[in-house]
Every structure is written in C-alpha cells, then in structure tokens.
Design brief:
3 strands; 21% helix; elongated
C-alpha cells in the first residue's frame, strides 16, 4: 500500500521529474520507491506503482 507520495520537478523538462513513494506491505515491511519519468522511467517500477494506486485498501 502507498502511504505517502511526493513529486519533484526541475522545471519544464518532463525528463527531469521524479516521484518518491513510501510503501508498506501487509506484513508491515516498509520501504521507499523512487521513480524517474521521461526516457529514464523503469517500466517495472511504473507497473508496481500503477497496481498499488489502483488497488483497494
């Protein structure tokens, strides 16, 4: 589950944007997931965040 999210941008270039997500699991494990956008996006990380955002609590 996503606990909190923050987006960061460096101006008008979409390739310089990123987001930081704090996440937790059902077993209370906690972690951070950082995603860059534009040409540097990691498709696997994007899939994880999409699934977490679309899941119900």
């Amino acid at each position: 589950k996503i606990v909190e999210s923050h987006s960061f941008g460096q101006g008008i270039d979409p390739g310089s944007e990123s987001s930081l997500h704090t996440i937790t699991t059902e077993s209370e494990a906690k972690g951070l997931l950082i995603i860059s956008y534009g040409m540097y996006v990691d498709p696997a990380k994007a899939t994880v965040i999409d699934r977490l955002l679309n899941s119900s609590d």
